[in-house]
Amino acid sequence: MVRKIIRSALISAPVELAYKVVADVMKYPEFLPGCDAVTVEQKTDDELDARMTVRASGLVHSFVTTNHCEATTITMALKEGPFKTLMGAWHFSAVGDIGCRVEVEIVYETDVAIAFFVGTVADSVANKVVDAFSARIEKAAAGQVY
In this predicted structure, what is the pLDDT of residue 120? Predict the structure, then answer.
């Protein structure tokens, strides 16, 4: 079953700072709910393969994504993990001089047997992820991190 999640937030921070926070995968365990560990398996100037270990509803999963970084977009595609498919993108756009809009879009496919369970958890996790990134970006804008 294929599912699509789209979430966005308006944040009082410049695009460059919001992008920096999302691109810095090694710091995810510091603030991202359920993220136990991240390791970078391969890295070039504009792409990296990162393994993330996450805990949700008492289960622990590990997956690897290839993340491609461009000027105002970070895309990811599943390389290895418990999904049939997983791909997504973060988009960053300036909103006047008040800050930026951060949007994340994730498309994934699971086996039919676990689709309902994963779908329910994924919707809840998506909201928590956007909230966690928004809070982290706001802290970075206030000079509290980075």
Answer: 55
Is 0.85 topped by the overall pTM? yes
56 has pLDDT over 80: no
| Three-state secondary-structure class, residue 83 | coil
Which neighbouring-strand residues pair with 63? 52
Q: Are 100 and 18 in contact (CB under 8 A)?
A: yes
Q: Which two tokens stand for residue 64?
A: 């690897």
Between the alpha carbon of residue 5 and those of residues 9, 54, 97, 127, 143, the distances in Å are 14, 18, 28, 10, 31
- Cα distances from 44 to residues 48, 51, 95, 96, 125, in angstroms, run 6, 15, 30, 33, 29
In angstroms, rounded to a whole number, what is the distance separating the alpha carbons of residues 113 and 120? 13
Specify whether the CB–CB gap between 56 and 121 falls below 8 A: yes
Query: Percent helix, strand and coil across the chain, each rounded to 5?
Result: 30, 50, 20
DSSP 144: S
- The mean pLDDT of the chain is 89
